[in-house]
Design goal:
Elements: H1 3-6, E1 10-11, H2 16-26, H3 49-64, E2 71-80, H4 104-115, E3 122-134, E4 137-149, E5 168-170, E6 175-176, H5 182-188, H6 190-205
Helix pairs in contact: 2-6, 5-6
The structure holds inosinic acid.
């Protein structure tokens, strides 16, 4: 059996939804800091998804100390053409004021309000994912999922997924991402595609 198969792999996130998705994509269990009483809340100061993913991976690696375990980190977000690419790398903090975060539902309502009746509804999810072995050895991949923002409040639909999924329509399915099953979402999603590249890399380098 390869070393990679028996190795503990960490995922630099506190987002349980992301952990669940990536575990299904990689078909293996991942360890996240909160489940090991490790306080992990790095400031995402990068200008790009790649920079932030690398920053998160390096930060967790540092916190783990001498452990040899590889660390996966992702940075993702929604880029809306009618909003000049916003919220983009700021997706997790969209609408935040005075340190007070909005709920996903509030973010979705704010985004629809900001976009108003703009004819430009195209948007994409982006996910940069890093597999870090040590400070200077890492594999990075970035993927996308194209779609469009629903036209109005009464088209917000679905209970699956998380975050912006209920306002993100997939034209091919005429359903929002939140109306897809977990498997359907993972098959087409930005995180699914990036995760499968990481899985292949792990297989070939284990
Ligand atoms: P981060 O990658 O943890 O910095 O935050 C990404 C933010 O982008 C999340 O909090 C969500 O709001 C949004 N996001 C990223 N991926 C998805 C997705 O697959 N569905 C819905 N929202 C997402």
């Amino acid at each position: 059996m390869s070393i990679i198969k028996t190795m503990k792999i960490w995922f630099a996130t506190n987002n349980i939804h992301k952990k669940k998705e990536l575990q299904a994509i990689l078909n293996r269990s991942l360890h996240i800091p909160s489940e090991h009483r490790i306080s992990f809340d790095p400031e995402e100061t990068g200008d790009t998804f790649c920079e932030n993913a690398l920053l998160k991976a390096r930060e967790l690696k540092k916190l783990l100390g001498k452990k040899n375990d590889p660390v996966i980190a992702d940075d993702s977000g929604l880029c809306v053409d009618g909003l000049d690419g916003r919220p983009g790398v700021q997706s997790a903090y969209y609408g935040e004021s005075g340190g007070k975060k909005l709920t996903s539902q509030q973010k979705n309502l704010l985004l629809l309000e900001e976009l108003g009746d703009s004819k430009i509804r195209t948007a994409r999810f982006i996910c940069a994912m890093v597999l870090l072995f040590d400070e200077n050895r890492f594999f990075v991949v970035q993927e996308t999922l194209e779609g469009e923002i629903v036209k109005s409040h009464n088209q917000i639909r679905g209970t699956g997924g998380f975050g912006y999924d209920p306002i993100f329509n997939i034209p091919k399915f005429s359903r929002t991402l939140a109306e897809l099953s977990d498997e359907e979402k993972n098959n087409i999603s930005h995180r699914g595609k990036a995760g499968r590249s990481i899985a292949k890399f792990l297989q070939n380098n284990g």
